[in-house]
Please model this.
Amino acid sequence: MNNTDISTSYSWSNTVHECFIKQTQLYPQKLALELDEQSVTYSELLYFVYCLTNYLTDKIQPNEIICQCVERSFEIIIGMLAILSSGAVYCPLSPLDPSERLKTLIQDTSTKTLFIHKSFIIFNYIIKPISVTSDNIAFIIFTSGTKGIPKAIVISHSHLPLYLQSSAEVDAFRTTDRAIQLLSCTCDVHIHEIFGTLLVGGTVILLRSKQGNRNMDYLSQIIEIHQATYVCIVPTLQVLLFDIVEAQKAYSRLNTSFYMLCEPISCRFIARILPKLPIGCQYINFSGATESTVIQMFHVVTKDDGLSELDTVPSGQPMPYFRCHILDQFVQIIPIGYIGELFISGPIMNGYLDRPDLNNTALVQLPDEPDKSYRTGDLARLIPSTGKIQVLGRNDFQVKVNGQRVELEEIQAVIYQSNSSISNCAVVKVVERGRDHLIAYIQLNKTSTSIPFDEKLIHTNFQDHLPQYMTPSLFILVDQLPFNSNGKLDKAALPKPNLSSLLLPINNDEISNDQDNEISMTNEQQLVHDLWCDILQLDVDSKIPINRSFFSLG
Model:
């Protein structure tokens, strides 16, 4: 692949913030950030970073964790760079998460400093020299954990630049790029979007917080207005984006490259959409785990993928500096085409913060590898005809739901907290009409003292403790969960969910409103109703309760 326009005039072995300073020296007046009509040059961005860094150095110790919980803005990137420049550890939190979850994450980090979204003081003196070595921690980021306990992944300064160099070498980042910063700060790929762009002299285009990252009409307009050259996006949102541009016959908006990630990509989707894209629009499938520093595999998608007999596009081949091993249960190499567990070697995580029990399981020493490798828990195989890696799913309780990695046991823990009469529960992922749904099956104690199951109450409990994407679409009561002869949950024997029941009222208020829907619905409400039916692929005659949340419908 061509990487001739990648800036390589400095050593990638430096820390990320030092690499950014080098880019500022090369392109001081080039636009670094854009947000609607506002913009910030590289030199202006560095000035703001210096100001905040000076403020921090008088108040924190090296390797101290700083949590940042701010909306999409210039400040989020200023904060990221200032935290790293001050020798502290960057830990992103989402302001959209429930307060109880935020409290838990903040307590887990033992942080003394929290950045929130408000103006900070501007200082007018030169930054003090700060020694940050490659062995220092660059950032930690939380992922869903078992038993309801999130896991904090630790990544060092030495591994972060090496990963970014790896991305540049496969042509993911170029000096001429104008990149949309689409993903949430709690998703590790936001580091890929921001630092990957800035460290080669590109421009980061930010989205308004109120528009969010799920308004695909808004996104398609931003791509066109700002002449974006690449977007990292999960396939679920990509389908919605193409539905919008297809309906409006506005494919010219998408004269950009797309980097698909986090989810398998349907070969049927590629066959449908690739021929309609403008010349020069490139697709790359990125795959990886946060534990292995964001992304470790890539595959350039072509029209041949649309003709493939496979269900999904391959994960591809390892990025430079990463090595992938597919091994059996005894950690031995298996023949090509056989299914095994995926292990990743290279610039991976230091480990989970204060979780030696998990580190002993996740980090293993493989023969011929100088350092420990990450045991992903993913099932994978080498495709015999191409030698590409195909990831087939998880071998534990983790699933990907609309691009977000979810630990099912964390969801189960919240279910148990909701009602003391719940004796057993299981959460499974189902796909209906191309959309992911989490379905919770619940078994109650059959005693005289049992507390009645209240779905409204359990929804409230989820709102208080977990993000929206971790809330099941349906809660189904069963007399007994089915198990096979090995004592494992027999998913095939679970009752098939009736997803049309998502349209039924949850409580008495919705029943009352539902009865008056046809009478009381305004023209604007009817328009929103019909749009929801279109997006969710429901019959336009479906009667969605007027007070129902969009996200509760899947």
User: Anything to note?
Assistant: The radius of gyration is 24 Å.
